[in-house]
Design a protein that fits this description.
The structure holds two protein chains of two kinds.
Chain A lengths: L1 H17 L5 H17 L6 H26 L7 H18 L4 H25 L4 H20 L4 E2 L3 H8 L8 H19 L1 H11 L1 H6 L4 H27 L1 E2 L7 H11 L11 H20 L4 H25 L1
Antiparallel strand pairs in A: 1-2
Chain B lengths: L1 H17 L9 E6 L5 H17 L2 E6 L4 H13 L4 E4 L9 H9 L3 E4 L10 E3 L3 H15 L4 E9 L3 H16 L3 E9 L4 H14 L3 E6 L2 H13 L7 E3 L5 H8 L5 E6 L2 H16 L7 E2 L4 E4 L3 H6 L3
Parallel strand pairs in B: 1-2, 1-3, 3-4, 4-5, 5-11, 6-7, 6-8, 8-9, 9-10
Antiparallel strand pairs in B: 10-12
Helix pairs in contact in B: 2-10, 3-4, 5-6, 7-8
The chains are: A mainly alpha, B alpha/beta.
């Protein structure tokens, strides 16, 4: 029984690795959405708007990649928004208040974020705290620490080039922040498809006990996954700081929910073991295009919230329906 | 066929958007709101909405729900829609300068209302005179409390322009009354009534002999009034608010409760002023760098008239 299960797991993870098969539904949804917006608005279909959308999804995109890794192993990370805010405040504190060079500030911010993730992972594996609870606690702790750094105030006064990296489009196309996001996408896809570590995630998500018996170091991998997820949140925070040219401890409230929504819309199952980065990228694009499109359509802010909720329900329902049929 | 036409139209629109707008006429205005849950902002929005409708100007409104990053994205989207003027109320304390820079890159007028980002001022800044009005509110509640006793302040979102200025004004009134002791101060994130309720409840718990509370916004003061009622201390506590929200004015008009005074801001007027300024700047006229429609001290006896017609 377990043997066939792993076999099936292995097979499906192979299939996942070489196609967008799990994400065809979301992909069709995305294309339909684009066609609809092109017809309905004059300003959607333009190169400039496309670049705007890329700018707008950087933070969510990077966060959602980390969240995908966590959800693939059957976990959840509720702390990403808070960890992002903490990393931003550390960045601001080191660079502006303590006057250190940006490279040290960035390293420090990433270290703090990574540490937060490692602690969550440690709590989950060693103390058997459910991921939901461990990261819920980290969400509260990181938010509190972020506020403590400046007693709740914002920090402004980054060097001019920092904001420019989010504004200047190199080659008329890529801002530095978008380039970082694309690099994260490519690395994550390559890792998931071609490295043993990528396969391990599916094995753990499918059945951790079987994965352990198959010789996978489940504990170590789990801690690494939570650390990577937090590191990516920290990275997202640095990019957001560049985009806003300021940091404030109240940033990123409820971003974990956006990230989870993107992963789920992209076809990754919350119970772990199926889905992947490719789908998540499409999920992120759907959310980004939808928000952008609703703004362009001048839809009232109150109605926008309703529509985004409906799309999440629709995406998940379609996926469930497909599974039941097959 | 229709789709093809649309695509062609979109392509043409893109091309024409690339050339700078020469016409100084304002046909389309973008309004970036920080948070429509707050009545104060909603009133400004209504002011802009009604006035643009009167003038036949198209209006685009976005709501950042207090998230600076969301606001930057929304402003980017507005720019693609080709607005001719930008009315900007920054979300959050950091008051990102980025939206102003985006609008500057398009060469369109930027009108700031209520809040102004550091280091990137708009063409004009329209905001109520906060210091003097906050001074008057605090002076009023201190007088009503007999000029002495323990006092608490529920601040707005830390570091925002109104939070800083309203505290400055209120502090002056406190300093003039040496018998008033400021025993508690807390910051809210959203200027919302539920925050006001929780904060006030804790303050009353910690200081059972509290006599005066200043809520930096009416929503905070309303929450505090509710908490005072719940604690059964409404006879002992006197509360002042700020803004002149509709809900608060209706409460005040009854003159029956701990919350007795506010400063009514001319929110609708601010909206009209913003639109007028945008038109003037676009036409190349000069406007004042700072425009300050007055807030009016509104004790509960005066509240009725403003419920009927909000300034």
């Amino acid at each position: 029984m377990t043997a066939t299960q792993t076999l099936r797991q292995e097979k499906s993870s192979l299939r996942e690795a070489f196609s967008f098969s799990g994400a065809t539904g979301p992909l069709i949804g995305l294309l339909l959405l684009c066609v609809f917006l092109t017809v309905m608005t004059d300003s959607f279909l333009s190169f400039r708007n496309f670049l705007n959308i890329l700018d707008q999804i950087t933070v969510l995109g990077i966060m959602a990649v980390g969240m995908t890794l966590v959800i693939l192993i059957g976990g959840i990370d509720l702390s990403v928004g808070s960890v992002m805010a903490l990393a931003m405040m550390v960045l601001g504190y080191l660079n502006v208040e303590a006057g250190m060079p940006m490279i040290i500030a960035i390293t420090g911010a990433l270290l703090v974020a990574g540490l937060a993730g490692a602690i969550s992972g440690f709590l989950i594996t060693e103390f058997k705290v459910p991921a939901f609870i461990a990261t819920l606690a980290m969400m509260s702790i990181a938010r509190g620490l972020a506020n403590m750094i400046t007693d709740g105030s914002q920090i402004i006064g980054f060097p001019a080039w920092f904001n420019m990296s989010a504004i200047i489009r190199y080659g008329g196309f890529l801002t530095l922040t978008v380039a970082v996001m694309l690099a994260v996408f490519v690395i994550a896809i390559l890792f998931q498809r071609y490295r043993a570590g990528g396969r391990m995630l599916y094995a753990i998500g499918g059945n951790p006990e079987v994965a352990r018996l198959a010789g996978i170091n489940v504990k170590r991998t789990t801690i690494l996954v939570y650390t990577s997820c937090a590191l990516l949140s920290g990275l997202a925070g640095i990019l957001l700081a560049a985009r806003l040219d300021s940091v404030q401890p109240s940033s990123g409230v409820a971003y974990e929910l956006d990230a989870i929504a993107a992963v789920v819309i992209g076809g990754t199952s919350l119970s772990g073991g199926t889905g992947g980065i490719g789908g998540t990228i499409i999920g992120v694009l759907i959310i980004g295009v939808l928000r952008n499109g609703l703004n362009l359509l001048n839809v009232s802010p109150f109605l926008q919230a309703v529509i985004i909720g409906l799309v999440i329900v629709l995406a998940v329902a379609a996926e469930t329906f497909k599974h039941r049929k097959s | 066929m229709n789709i093809k036409l649309r695509i062609a139209a979109a392509a043409i629109a893109t091309l024409s958007a690339a050339s700078p707008a020469l016409a100084a006429e304002v046909k389309k205005v973008g309004l970036a709101m920080p948070n429509l849950q707050a009545d104060f902002f909603n009133q400004i929005k209504l002011g802009v909405e009604n006035y643009t409708k009167e003038l036949g100007i198209e209006l685009i409104v976005v709501d950042a729900k207090n998230d600076t990053a969301t606001q930057v994205s929304q402003v980017q989207d507005m720019m693609t829609q080709g607005i001719d003027a930008f009315i900007y109320i920054p979300a959050g304390a950091a008051a990102a300068a980025v939206p102003t820079r985006l609008a500057r890159a398009e060469g369109i007028p930027v009108i700031n209302v209520d809040r102004q980002p550091d280091g990137a001022p708009g063409d004009t800044f329209i905001a109520g005179e906060s210091v003097e009005s906050a001074y008057q509110v605090c002076k009023y509640i201190i007088e009503k409390a007999g000029g002495k006793g323990k006092m608490a302040i529920i601040h707005g979102q830390k570091g925002t322009t109104p939070e800083v200025l309203r505290f400055e004004g209120c502090k002056r009134a406190i300093d003039e009354n040496p018998d008033v002791e400021l025993v508690a101060q807390q910051y809210s994130q959203m200027w919302s009534p539920d925050e006001g309720f929780n904060i006030a409840q804790n303050m009353l718990q910690a200081n059972p002999d509290l006599k005066i509370i200043f809520g930096q916004a009416d929503a905070l003061a309303m929450g505090a009034a509710k908490a005072t009622d719940v604690a059964g201390m409404s006879d002992q506590v006197i509360i002042g608010g700020y803004d002149g929200d509709i809900a608060a004015l209706e409460y005040l008009a009854k003159c029956d409760g701990p919350f007795i005074v506010t400063a009514t801001q001319s929110t609708q007027l601010m909206g009209r002023l913003a639109v007028d300024s945008a038109i003037k700047v676009a036409a190349g006229e000069k406007v004042e760098e700072r425009q300050t429609p007055n807030a009016v001290l509104t004790p509960c006896e005066d509240a009725r008239q403003y419920v009927e017609k909000h300034p």
